[in-house]
C-alpha cells in the first residue's frame, strides 16, 4: 500500500500463518534460548504445558504479515520504535495466527515534511480468538516534498 492509501480507523488483516516446532526451536536456539522455547521435554513439565514460541518470534510473524498486507511496495523505510508490546497468550507449533492492524493516525511530519508518519496497533490472534500479540507501532514513509 502507498502512504496515501492509509487512513485513521482503517483495519488491515492478513494471514493466517503457523510456526512449525522446528521454526520455534531454530529461532529460540539462536535468539531466545530459554528452556521453555528450546527443550520440548522440559517445557512439557513447565508452566505452559509445552513448547512455546518466543514473544520476539511472534513480533517477527507480525512483521512478516504487516509487510504482506501493507508495507511491501510502499514508501515505508524505517520505524522509530514500538510501544506496549504484550504477549497475552503463548503461541505453539501448528497454531494458525492471523494479523489485524488498526490505523490510529496518518500525518505528514511537521518537522520533516519528507516523512509520513503512520501510527497503528498490531495484533496477532489464534484461530479461537485468543490474542497472542499486541503492540503499538510507528512507521515512517519517505514522501516527495511539494
Describe this structure in words.
InterPro entries: HotDog_dom_sf, MaoC-like_dom. This is Acyl dehydratase. With 146 residues, the protein is of the alpha+beta class. The protein contains four helices and five strands, in the order βααααββββ. It has helices at residues 21-31, 35-38, 40-44, 55-71; strands spanning 11-17, 76-86, 97-108, 115-126, 131-142. The chain has a five-stranded antiparallel β-sheet, with helices on one face. The longest helix is centred in the middle third of the chain and has 17 residues, at 55-71. The radius of gyration is 17 Å and the shape is elongated. It starts with 10 loop residues before the first strand and ends with a strand.
Could you outline the blueprint of secondary structure elements for this entry?
Blueprint: E1 11-17, H1 21-31, H2 35-38, H3 40-44, H4 55-71, E2 76-86, E3 97-108, E4 115-126, E5 131-142
Antiparallel strand pairs: 1-3, 2-5, 3-4, 4-5
Organism: Vitreoscilla filiformis
Protein name: Acyl dehydratase
Pfam families: MaoC_dehydratas
Amino acid at each position: 500500500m502507498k502512504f496515501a492509501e492509509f487512513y485513521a480507523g482503517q483495519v488491515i488483516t492478513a494471514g493466517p500463518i503457523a510456526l512449525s516446532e522446528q521454526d520455534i526451536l531454530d529461532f529460540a536456539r539462536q535468539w531466545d534460548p530459554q528452556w521453555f522455547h528450546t527443550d520440548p521435554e522440559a517445557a512439557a513439565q513447565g508452566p505452559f504445558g509445552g513448547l512455546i514460541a518466543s514473544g520476539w518470534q511472534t513480533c517477527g510473524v507480525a512483521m512478516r504479515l504487516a509487510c504482506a498486507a501493507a508495507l511491501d511496495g510502499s514508501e515505508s523505510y524505517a520505524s522509530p520504535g514500538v510501544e506496549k508490546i504484550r504477549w497475552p497468550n503463548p503461541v505453539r507449533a501448528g497454531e494458525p495466527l492471523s494479523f489485524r492492524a488498526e490505523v490510529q493516525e496518518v500525518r505528514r511530519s511537521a518537522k520533516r515534511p519528507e516523512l509520513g508518519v503512520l501510527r497503528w496497533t498490531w495484533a496477532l490472534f489464534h484461530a479461537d480468538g485468543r490474542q497472542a500479540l499486541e503492540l503499538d507501532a510507528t512507521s515512517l514513509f519517505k514522501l516527495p516534498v511539494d
